[in-house]
Specification:
Layout: E1 5-10, H1 16-22, H2 28-38, H3 45-56, E2 62-67, H4 70-76, E3 82-85, H5 92-97, E4 103-106, H6 116-121, E5 125-127, H7 132-150, H8 152-155, H9 161-166, E6 197-201, H10 205-216, E7 220-224, H11 231-237, E8 239-241, H12 244-250, E9 253-256, H13 270-275, E10 281-284, H14 293-302, E11 307-310, E12 330-332, H15 342-359
Parallel strand pairs: 1-2, 1-3, 3-4, 4-5, 6-7, 6-9, 7-8, 9-10, 10-11, 11-12
Helix pairs in contact: 3-15, 7-10
Length: 361
């Protein structure tokens, strides 16, 4: 490996940690900001950086060039030994500009934005990583689904006759001479994920992780996105491609898993909410703005939705007088889906260590 390593990195906010660890010229202000960002899970961020540097050997120090657009990417590639991208497209043109490229690292498990054939033809190693943060988001989606399904947000900690009566379940004992005593508060409307239908809008990294876990619960999984997955991938995930209208009409649970872009703002609006199966649950762990807030409130007031769950919120920090909190079938949480921070820290450490191994071979 050269004494002057050059890495080109897509300017995802988490990937900025690569620059902090590997490039000694990163401003102290950025280092301090990330030390604060990670402090509640990793109080010794400087120690984390030192541990990773110890494991990456000659990859430290490196010059890290951050890019945000395809034009910046092409301009930064000459002389770079490695490229790390999440969403930027990498094809023949980009690879040709990277005259010294040896490794392309996808910050994720599915390199759909990277021309694998072109990489192989040029002898460029393509690396991927199954991100713990994405797995945590999928766990959160299932957690919120289960919370709504079992009404845990209303029932947790409410075990006395007085507590249950306060939330609408007055106690009336069963005739125990003849009957069992399960569900003695007579909680109606409880459901199961087993044999229910889940509709995922956007089968990206997190969407795939959700599908894997939903299958383990015995759910039928539908999905919709602009480009259909290869048939072999559909079979491996156990998912069925349908139109958006069919997904909305047939799904007991709908999870919109779309990127936060101007094109996806209000993607789920009045029209889409009206197409939902009556009593369906809508669970959003992507971006709040994907679901039109005014239309959502109208639909909740109408009683058409079985429940709604959201992480992250429409504004951060949230408000204690948020209208959504008035509904007993709504669960809100303060942007914790990808947590703990060690998910990202361990992903990034693993990725940098693997890059170092490849570049020293």
């Amino acid at each position: 490996m050269s004494n002057e390593n050059v890495l080109v990195v897509e300017d995802d906010r988490f990937l900025r940690v690569v620059g902090i660890v590997l490039d000694p010229t990163v401003p102290a202000e950025r280092v301090a900001a990330f030390a604060d960002f990670f402090a509640h899970d990793e109080p010794d961020f400087a120690g984390y950086c030192a541990r990773v540097r110890k494991h990456v050997g000659a990859l430290y120090p490196s010059t890290v060039r951050f890019v945000d657009t395809p034009q910046e990417l092409t301009a930064a590639l000459p002389g770079a030994a490695a490229l790390i991208v999440e969403s930027l497209a990498i094809g023949e043109g980009e690879l040709a500009a990277g005259n010294a490229l040896r490794v392309v690292q996808k910050f994720g498990a599915r390199p759909r934005n990277i021309d694998e054939v072109a990489c192989a033809a040029r002898g460029i190693k393509l690396l991927t990583i199954r991100r713990r943060a994405n797995i945590a988001c999928a766990e959160m989606a299932l957690t919120l689904m289960l919370t709504l399904t079992k009404k845990l947000h209303r029932l947790a900690g409410r075990i006395s006759v007085e507590q249950l009566a306060a939330v609408g379940y007055p106690y009336k004992p069963f005739d125990r001479r003849h009957t069992p005593n399960s569900n003695w508060p007579r909680i109606g409307g409880l459901r199961t994920l087993n044999e229910a239908t889940l509709g995922i809008i956007g089968m990206g990294e997190i969407g795939c992780e959700i599908a894997i876990r939903a299958a383990a619960f015995g759910m039928r999984v539908l999905y919709h996105q602009r480009t259909r997955l290869p048939e072999a991938e559909e079979r491996a995930l156990g998912v069925t491609y349908v139109s958006l209208s069919q997904l909305l009409a047939e799904s007991d649970y709908v999870v919109p898993q779309l990127p936060g872009t101007p094109a996806t703002v209000g993607f789920i609006g009045r029209k889409e909410l009206a197409q939902l199966k009556p009593g369906a649950f809508l669970v959003n762990i992507s971006r709040a703005e994907i679901v039109d807030r005014a239309a959502l409130l109208e639909t909740l007031r109408s009683g058409r939705l079985g429940g709604f769950a959201l992480d992250p919120l429409y504004e951060a920090p949230g408000r204690s007088d948020d209208e959504l909190l008035a509904f007993d079938n709504v669960v809100l949480s303060p942007h914790i889906a990808a947590q703990p921070r060690f998910n990202a820290l361990n992903d990034l450490a693993d990725m940098m260590e693997r890059l170092a191994q490849e570049l020293t071979q």
